[in-house]
Amino acid sequence: MTVLYAFVAAGLFGCGLYMVLSRHAVRMMLGLSLLTTAVNLVLFQAGRIRTAQPPLIPEGAERLGESADPLPQALVLTAIVIGFALTVILAALVLRAWRSQRTLRSDELRSAQDLGSPLTPGPDLDH
Amino acid sequence: MIAMLLATSAVASGVSLLVGRFLCRRRVGWLLGLVPAGLFLGFLALHGTIEAGQTITERLAWAPSLGVDFSLRLDGFAYLFCLLVTGVGALVVVYADAYLVERSPEDRARFLTLILFFMTAMLGTVLADNLIVLFLFWEATSVFSFLLIGFDVDSPSARRSALMALHVTAGGGLALLAAILLIGVVLGGYSLTEVVVRAPELARSPWSVAILAGVFIGAFTKSAQFPFHFWLPNAMQAPTPASAYLHSATMVKLGIYLLARFEPVVGAVPGARDALIAVAMITMLVAAFQTIRAENYKTVLAYSTVASLGILVMLVGLNGPMASVATVGFLLAHALYKATLFFCAGTVIHATGLTKLRQMGGLWRFLPVTALASALASLSMAGLPPFFGFISKEFLFEAQIQSSWDAVPMAVAVLVNAVMVGVAGVVTLRPFFMGAHRVQDVRHKEVVGLLLGPMILALLGLVISLEPTWVNRVVLLPAVMAVYGQRVDVKVALWHGVTPMLLLSAAVVGIGALLFVFWVPLHYRLRTFTRVDRYDAEHAYDALLRRVRAVARGIAERLQQQDLRSQLGVIFFAVVAFLIWALITLGRGPRFPASVGAVRVGPALLALVGLAGGIAATWARSLLAAMIATGLAGLVAALTFLVNGAPDLALTQFAVESLVVVLLTVALLALPLDAPTTRSPRARRGDAALAAGLSVILFIALLDMAAAPQQNTVSAFFGARSYLDAFGRNVVNVILVDFRGFDTLGETTVIALSAVIAWSLLGPRVSIEDGSGGARRSVFVLEFASPVFFWLLAVLSVVVLLRGHNQIGGGFVGGLMGALAFAIVALTHGVDRARKRLRFHPLTLAGVGLLLAVASGLPGLVAHGDYLRHVWIEANVFGVHVKQGTALLFDVGVYLAVLGTVLAFLFGLTREAEA
C-alpha cells in the first residue's frame, strides 16, 4: 500500500507541476491546488500508513494506544486550509486580471514589465 | 570599565536622537556634547593604569563555540585613539550644532546621532581584541561614514560620493575579513594579542602573503592610500563637521591603526615593508600633485590629508624605534591641526557660502578668531617651531635617518612636507589675510559654538610642545610602547641642537615658502595637465561600476526571461538538477521498502482514481472540466485520509473541496471557459519531461522515507501527555490548540490576512442595503432544501467546534462547515440574502476571531507566565461536571477567523463576478 500511495502522491505532484508550467492563469491555479493536495499526501505518508485507527484516546484510557500518527495530521490539517486560502486568492487575482486586462495568458499580463526594468540605470546611478 | 564606557556610548547615541527630536530642539549640541566629553573624562580616569604600561582586558562571552568572544583590550595605542575620538568628538558635536543652525531640529538630531554612533563604532574598533569584533565595528564606521557623507539625501552628488566611500571602504573591509578568517585558520583564534605574540608563526605560514594582502587592502581603503585614495576628496560632500571628525582626525587613521597593530607581522614577511613604503610614496606624490591642482578649500585639505596618511603609512613601513615614535607623534599632531583647519574651513564656507579658495580673501576682518586658529594650526602643519607639528616632523626625519632605507623615501618626504608648508600658507593666508577686496560681507558672524573647537585644538598644538611632560608621560610613551613592543625613551623637546633633522626641516620650510610664492602659477600650470585625469583611479572606479552593472544586467536578462513559464522552468530545472546532484553525492543508493505489503483493493482503486483525476486535469480543454478533475483528486485525498485513520483531515478536506467547487465556479463562470492550449507541442513535451523527472525523484524519495526507520518520539510524547496535561482526547486537536498553539496562531493569522487581501482585491464596495439581489431563477429543490441544510450545517458546525477537543472536529472544520451553511443560502437566494443573514461584516468576524485567539493566550501568561499555556476551570453546574479551558476560547477564535475568511472569499468573489 505504501508504494502505491507514494506512486499516487508523486504522480499527482507531477500533474500539478505540469499544469503550473502552463501559460494559462486558471490552469496554473488548478495546478497549484493539485500540488497542495499532493504535498499533503506526502506529509501524511511521513507518519507511515499503518492502521485505520484515528488518534483518539478512548474513554477510560489516559494515553493514546495504537493509532495513526497524530503529528502529521495536525500539520496537514492547517495546510489544507491554507492551501485552500491560497487557491481562492489566486482565483481572485485571476478574476481581477481578466477584468482589467482581458487576457489570462501569463505572457500577455505585462503591467509589471511595462513599468520598466529595475536594471535600467536611473538618473541617480548614472550621476 | 571599558565595556561600560563602550556600552554607555552606544546607549547614549541611541537616546540622543530622541533628545534632539523631542526634548531639546535648540542648542542640543551643548547637551549632547556632554556624552563624548564624559567619555573623555572616563578614559582620562584610567591614565594611571596606562601610564604604568599595563593593558586593561575585559571579556564577555558572545559566541564561544565559534571562538568569538566580545573581548576588549585597552593599551597605550588604543588609549591615544580613545582620547582623540572622544575629545575631538565633543568639540565636533558642539561645532556641528552651530554649523547646522539653519537646518531643522530633526536634521540636526539625525546628524548628531550619526556622529555619536560613529564615535561608538570607532571606540569599538580600537578597543576590540577579538578580530571579528574589530571587523564588525570597522564596517560600522564605514556605514556611518556613508550615512554622514550622504547626509544631504537630496543631493545626487552627495549620494554618489557616499556610495563611492561605502564601496571602497566596506569593500576593503571584506578583504580584511578574509585576512581575519585566514588568521583564524593559522592561529586557531582571533585574538589581536595572539597575532602580535605569534607573529613569526603567522609569517611562516603559507597564508602569510594572503593575510597581509587582505590587511593591506583593508588599511589602504580606509586610510585612502593609492589607488583607493579617490573616495576621500569626494567624501568632502559631507557637512564639514563630519569631514573634520571622520575624514581627517579619526576614521581615516584606522588603516594606520591596523597596520601599526600588524607591524610585527609586516616586519617578519619579506618584502612587506617595501610594499608599504612604495604605496605610501606613490600616495604622497599623487596627493601632493592633486593638492596643488585643487581649487576648493576642502578639497585642498582633503588631498593634504591623503598625503599625511601616506606619511603615516610610510612610517609604519620603516623599521626602528623612532618610526614608532614618529607614527604616534605625527598621528596626534595631524589630528590636532587638520581638524582645526577643517573647522575653520567650515566656518568660512558657512559664513560666505563660497567654496573655492580663489573667491575668498580678507576674512580676518569678519572672522578674527577663526583666522587666528587657522594661523596657529597652519604654523603647526608647516612644522615651524614652537608648534607640535615641528616636533613631530623632527621625529619623522629622525626615523628616516635611523631606518635602513636609502634616500628615495627621504627625498619624497622632504618634497611632500614642503607641499604641506605651501598648503599651510595657502589655506590660511589666502582666505583670511590676502585679497581683502574679494569678500565684502559675510552671512554669519562667529559664534561661540563655532570657535570652541578650533581654538582648543589649535592651542593644544602649541601647549603640548611647550609643556610636553604630561602628554608625553600619559599618552605618547604608552602609545609608543604599545606599538613598538618595548619602552622607548622619547625626548619631546623643541631644541636638540643643530642636527641633521633640523637642517632637513629648514630645507622643507625653504622649499615650501618658494612653493607658496609660486603657488598660483603652479596651480594653473598643473591644471592644464588634463591628460592625467584619464588615468585617475576614480575613472577606473566608474568604469568598474558600469561593467559590474552591465554584467549583472546580462545575467539577469538571460536567466530572468519575461515569460513566467520559462522562469518557472529554470527554477524547477535547477531543483531537479540539485536533487540529482544530492542523490549522487549521497554516497548510498535509495532504500526500498522490504515488501510491498498487503494491498487493500478498495483503497488502492480509490487512490488510482485520484491519480486519474490529476491526469485528466492536465488533459482537459475546458476549464470547468479541469476544475472538476482537480476536485476529484481532492476528494480522493479526503477518502484516503478517512480510510487511514485521519477522520479530522477527511472532514476538513471534504469541506474544503465543497467550498472550492462553490467559489471557483463563481469565479470561472465570469471567465471564458474554453481555454486553448498556450504551449507548443514541443514545449508541452519539455514540461511533461520536467514534471515527470521531479515526480520520479519524489517517488524514490518517498520510498526511501518509507523504508527508513521511523522516529516518532514527538508523536509518542503528544499521545502520552495529551489527556494528562491538556485534558483532550483528540490528539490532533490538542496538538493544534495546545502543544503547537503558537504555530496555529500564526496560521490563523495568515488565513485572516488572506481575507483582507481578497476583500481589498475584489470588486466595488457595496453595502448590504444597496445590493440589488436581482431576479434569480430559483431552483425548487434548492429553495425547499435550503433552510434545512442551512440550520443543519450551522448547528453541526458549532457542535463540531465544541466537541473538537475530545472527538473528531475543531475550529478549522467547524469554521469551514459554518461557511458551507452560508454558501447554500448564497446559492439559493443570492449572496445578498446570505450577507443579511450573517448580519456582521465578514472581516469583522475574521478580526474578532483572530483577536479572540490572541487573547486566549493571555490568562496563561498571567497565571503561569507562559503565553498560550491554557488555563482550565472545573466546576459542577447543576450536578453536571464541567471542565473547560482557554483552549476552547482559542478554538472559537479559529472558528470565527476561518468562517469570516471563507465568507469574505464568497461574498467578494460573487460581487466581483456579478459586477
Runs of chain B in which pLDDT lies below 50 for 5 or more consecutive residues are none
**Oligomer kind:** heterodimer
What does the overall shape of chain B look like?
elongated
Number of strands of chain B: 4
Average pLDDT rating of chain B:
89
Label the structural class of chain B. Answer: mainly alpha
Through-space gap between termini of chain B:
71 Å
What characteristic shape of chain A results from the CA principal axes? elongated
Largest interface: A-B, 95 and 117 residues
- Gap from first CA to last CA of chain A: 67 Å
Sheet of most strands of chain B: 2 strands, antiparallel
Rg of chain B, Å, rounded:
38 Å
Strand content of chain A is under 5%
Number of strands of chain A: 0
If you average the pLDDT of chain A, what whole number results? 87
- Helical segment count of chain B: 40
Residues in helix, % of chain A: 55-70%
Give me the Rg of chain A, rounded: 22 Å
| Helical content of chain B (DSSP H or I, runs of 4+) | over 70%
Instruction: Provide the succession of SSEs of chain A.
Output: HHHH
How would you characterize the overall build of this protein?
The complex is a heterodimer of chains A (127) and B (915). In chain A, 61% of the residues lie in helices and 0% in strands. With 127 residues, chain A is mainly α. Chain A is elongated and about 65 Å long. The relative contact order of chain A is 0.13. Chain B is mainly α and 915 residues long. Chain B contains 40 helices and four strands. The two termini of chain B are 71 Å apart. A two-stranded antiparallel ribbon of chain B has the order 1-2. A two-stranded antiparallel ribbon of chain B has the order 3-4. At the A-B interface, helix 1, helix 2 and helix 3 of A face helix 8, helix 26, helix 27, helix 28 and helix 29 of B.
Features:
heterodimer; A: 127 residues; mainly alpha; elongated; disordered C terminus; B: 915 residues; two-stranded antiparallel sheet; two-stranded antiparallel ribbon; 40 helices; 73% helix
